[in-house]
Design the sequence.
């Protein structure tokens, strides 16, 4: 039964990830690149860890629903028809609500990324959708309120603890598929995409980053820093008993690097597609120029 559940969820995850990259890339004749993106998403080391080692059903479902959320937001901003815009918006609200019921920390992290997306794409609807999605998960946060503010934290079954030592080391961020203590790095595929973009930018002199890209990369960097063992979570916990309990509910700061991996995966695949498309177009133009010169 467990194996059937994992296989089924991964098939659905592949389909939703393909749809997400198809929406993001918007290349009618580049469906194969959407396939590459979907495979890259499935093979992200943190996702592989969730599926094969921790086998956490809640986290598996979250990784399945995240592409639905992202694709719905992209389609909502791209369509002009109010009927479809409303439908995609409600789908995004429902997806975030489901994530919030499964994991309150994940929903708040994605709310942050949705607000970043609203700033980058100049879509005021994004933060509204994020807030409505989190509101749909109100039972989770009502439980948090009782634990954190009503003195009932013992009911959670957890004990107040520091999470700093459970974060990543700097070297751990760049590990491939060999790691310790549940800290998978970014892996060969994602690291290869980023190195390819750095090569195209600094060696080939191609402009990779647009203005909004710095905001996305800043968000990924912030999540990465929050996942490190050097981030001052102990200082945050000193803000009060509610903060002590809230940080304890995070469990491990390593989860933030998982969301940074998702963000970097989508961004790097999109940029690699743009670079390859530009290279292909340039090659065709040069070939056409050579043919014209030959005819003359």
Sequence:
């Amino acid at each position: 039964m467990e194996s059937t559940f994992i296989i089924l969820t991964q098939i659905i995850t592949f389909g939703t990830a393909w749809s997400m990259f198809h929406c993001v890339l918007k290349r009618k004749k580049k469906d194969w690149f959407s396939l590459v993106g979907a495979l890259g998403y499935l093979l992200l080391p943190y996702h592989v860890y969730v599926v094969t080692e921790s086998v956490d059903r809640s986290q598996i479902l979250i990784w399945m629903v995240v592409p639905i959320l992202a694709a719905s937001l992209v389609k909502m901003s791209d369509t002009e028809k109010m009927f479809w815009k409303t439908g995609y918006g409600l789908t995004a609200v429902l997806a975030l609500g489901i994530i919030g019921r499964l994991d309150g920390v994940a929903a708040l992290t994605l709310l942050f990324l949705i607000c970043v997306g609203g700033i980058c794409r100049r879509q005021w609807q994004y933060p509204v959708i994020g807030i409505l999605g989190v509101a749909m998960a109100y039972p989770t946060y009502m439980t948090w309120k009782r634990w954190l503010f009503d003195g009932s934290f013992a009911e959670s079954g957890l004990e107040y603890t520091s999470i700093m030592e459970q974060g990543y080391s700097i070297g751990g961020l760049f590990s491939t598929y060999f790691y310790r203590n549940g800290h998978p790095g970014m892996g060969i595929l994602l690291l290869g995409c980023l190195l390819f973009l750095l090569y195209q930018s600094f060696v080939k002199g191609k402009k990779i980053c647009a203005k909004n890209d710095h905001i996305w990369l800043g968000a990924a960097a912030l999540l990465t820093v929050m996942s490190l063992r050097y981030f001052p979570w102990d200082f945050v916990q000193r803000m009060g008993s509610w903060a002590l309990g809230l940080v304890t509910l995070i469990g491990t700061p390593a989860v933030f690097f998982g969301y940074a991996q998702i963000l970097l995966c989508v961004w790097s695949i999109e940029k690699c597609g743009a670079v390859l498309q530009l290279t292909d177009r340039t090659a065709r133009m040069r070939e056409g120029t050579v043919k014209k010169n030959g005819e003359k």
User: Anything to note?
Assistant: The mean pLDDT is 84. DSSP finds 13 helices and no strands in the chain. The CA atoms of residues 144 and 150 lie 9 Å apart.
